[in-house]
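Justification of resources, computational component.

The compute hours requested in this renewal are based largely on the per-chain cost of generating structure records like the one below. Each record pairs the submitted sequence with a full structure-token output. That output is archived, and it is also reused by downstream analysis tasks.
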Amino acid sequence: MAEPFRGLHLQGAGQAYATLSAAVGASRDGDVVAVQAGTYVNDFAPITKDVTIVGVGGIANFVATVAPPNGKGILVTQSDVTIQNLSFSGVAVERRGHPL
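The structure output for this chain reads:
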């Protein structure tokens, strides 16, 4: 029998997780992480599970004001990850010392 859908939500009144990292960490393969619209500063999330991450109620903006610890604003290491209605800014990916 298939497991029921588990929605994981971020910031907002009554939400279970304050950061994308925490929500993804608590998720399982196949889960949907629903991110409330808004701006999230310096929330760097390694995505190590097959999940769908969706901004709801508008765009969820992830903004970096410091260098991310892994050099990436979001690091996806799984093959079945879907990201919808999110934006990322403040991080430049470099190749041979030059921004791409």
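Strands lie at 7-9, 32-41, 45-47, 52-63, 74-76, 82-84, 86-89, 94-95, 98-99. Confidence is low (pLDDT under 50) at residues 1-5.
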